[in-house]
């Protein structure tokens, strides 16, 4: 097991290095940052002056090694858009907002998906099951920005129950967290339902019923525990997706997290911040995947690599 | 599962949801009473920083409340008015300006009185090697600062060029004639007054923490990515705001900005033109600037008549008849009505403004342009086709239309598509290409944007436009250039007399008008959505990078 974890960890490091090369190259392929940094009337002299100041006049490979050397120490340089802030400092400052939103979205998705998934399996082919299917269908097909705007107009503008946007009290979190979590609710609900259906048909469940165990105990204890392997592994990946995939929701709800930071940084060609975000996001995702692999091997002893 | 038990759980959940919703609704009810914090929702700027020189002019929006300029801008007329300077006068040779400063104006936070030392310091800040401010290049060249000058060398030059007569009088010397320096000293430009004493105490690090000036609002806090908060300065020398606090809140999406305004969470908002009707339908008010703020034009790529080696004679745009035909194929009225809500004024010569430029250079405006505009530029597809035939392009030709959005004018893409239809109607074959604006910048900077049309928008000032867009050398936005214009640029570099400068500028205007140098379209107003429940009057000129200036003069509804 330890060897397996070590190999997977080394693979993660390799993936991270490849990621650093990709993000460094792609950022520069989008064009010259001076065209964003400087006003359009800036002359050639101005361009040379500012390029020299930011080290943009050095060869690309040199810029990469400087970047890599500093990145290994956690230094991604100073931001261009947010002057006076370091790129990593910005990511760290904005990460709690994203974690908070993702955390609430995860809680919402688990709290809804688990009972709904179990109930739709138990009440298969009933009205409740159909309702669950509709929820799943809508959750997976509605674009999150559209859902966000519709919910905002209903609950914030028309009814005035919730704030439209921004971050402050827990009220601010409700709409973005629902939008962010709904897709995952739908996905996870379907997964729980199908796993539960498999387990409900198995012999040991019939045995528990024959033994006279109460139905709630059969369903919520014995069946759910056995049906949890697939949703559990999916949940770990979901956590990674929610943390890294909040770009759209953060923009719609002006939620000051890393997703919004990423959008702003890309628009401003703020290479340093873009690089820091991508590396942090990649690390989160790789760690989530590593955790899934380890969990999988732990839960299912048949799995050995 | 026992049905009754499940039903009970579901009822319990339903009751809990109702209680929560009621609690949230109660908590969200807006508090009644006088407005104490005015909140402005605005799309995030290109920069989010307290440094005034590490961003370009548009980034100043969130710092203006705390800062003041030597010369102010009248919110009704757009005229230059005294602010921190009481008087200003140019020497006869046009190479120095004497400025008399206002006495008794204090910086926020006990940083002392504003004096002549702060004027020199302001020029130092904007001219620093790391400065990317819009006027950085202009000030460096006016002060004679070379590319490789160190900070120390630069400071030494400034000691000579910015002569301190006494605490309240300063003479700014320039290396070349600068008869329009008042514009660069004004709130339309970038020279904000910040405290020298504060710089001496903590330098760049201290400046990064707060925006400190002499304005009617004092900086409280900047939450990067979220908001900037100010509190009013009691008994400010110029204007004490009617409300205690001012907040700029960053809201990236246009629909969300509209929602925040209608929901009463913010009181002024930047509302996209396409959403303005939704705002007014919900009882909001859209206030226009007093003056037209944004000029919009389309440029022909590759018009390098003053650098023949860069001119591609095979390009159809090189033919004046083609340029006229393309101008005459445009149904400007339909575009103005259907895309811009009709709230525009025609632009006859690119960025020559009949009021604002006339105020700076009396005589620059040629009334003939108005008389002849319909004949030369008016919508006439038949004549456009005839001109194309005469030029040998009866079957049309292919060309590229670059489409991208620019701040303040998100409708550019719609306008580009409408133009494409107009040109197709006269037999041309436009190819629309969506592109990132910086990519276009690379092309015009390197004089390689042949055979493409590209849109622009910007503020009025004919001279600024000409020196940036219509100059063959030592510029960077190489658009239309011509030896005739070069001669006049040469003369403008020496002429001091206002009348003479106006004549030279008008001659360039005549040339561009007669040669169909580009496709001038409209002057647009800057527009701000306000909630009339809170705001009864907001007057702003619009000529200072659009809206959200002069916020201290807002009158509240209560």
Q: In total, how many beta strands of chain B?
A: 19
pLDDT < 50 stretches of chain A:
none
Query: What is the highest CATH level, the class of chain A?
Result: Mainly Alpha
Radius of gyration of chain A: 24 Å
Strand content bin of chain A: under 5%
In one word, what is the shape of chain B? globular
Q: What is the arithmetic mean of pLDDT of chain B?
A: 91
Q: Sketch the topology of chain A as an H/E string, one letter per element.
A: HHHHHHHHHHHHHH
Q: Count up the domains of chain A.
A: 1
Give the overall silhouette of chain A.
flat
> Which structural class matches the secondary elements of chain B?
alpha+beta
Helix count from the secondary structure assignment of chain B: 18
Main beta sheet of chain A: strand number and arrangement?
none
- Could you name the CATH topology of chain A? MetI-like fold
Q: Could you estimate the helical fraction of the residues of chain B in percent?
A: 25-40%
Percentage of residues in helical conformation of chain A: over 70%
Low-pLDDT runs of chain B: none
Task: Describe this protein's structure.
The complex is a heterodimer of chains A (305) and B (558). Chain A has 305 residues and is an all-alpha fold. Chain A has a single domain (1-305), classed as MetI-like (MetI-like fold), CATH 1.10.3720.10. Helices cover 77% and strands 0% of the residues of chain A. In chain A, helix 5 (87-122) runs parallel beside helix 14 and helix 8 packs across helix 10 (215-227). Chain A is flat, with a radius of gyration of 24 Å. Chain A starts with a helix and ends in a 6-residue tail after the last helix. Chain B is α+β, with helices and mostly antiparallel strands and 558 residues long. Chain B is built from 18 helices and 19 strands. Chain B has helices at 3-28, 116-127, 136-142, 151-161, 181-185, 196-209, 254-262, 276-281, 320-328, 332-340, 356-360, 367-377, 381-390, 412-425, 437-445, 462-469, 483-492, 498-515; strands at 37-42, 71-73, 80-82, 85-90, 96-101, 162-166, 169-173, 217-223, 227-232, 245-250, 268-269, 285-300, 344-346, 398-403, 429-434, 452-458, 518-530, 535-537, 555-556. In chain B, the strands form four sheets. In chain B, strands 1, 8, 9, 10, 11, 12, 13, 14, 15, 16 and 17 form an eleven-stranded mixed beta sheet that branches. Chain B has a four-stranded antiparallel beta sheet with strand order 4-5-7-6. In chain B, strand 2 and strand 3 form a beta hairpin. In chain B, helix 2 (116-127) packs across helix 4 (151-161), helix 9 runs antiparallel to helix 13 (381-390) and helix 17 packs antiparallel against helix 18. Chain B is globular. The interface between A and B is large, with 61 and 59 residues.
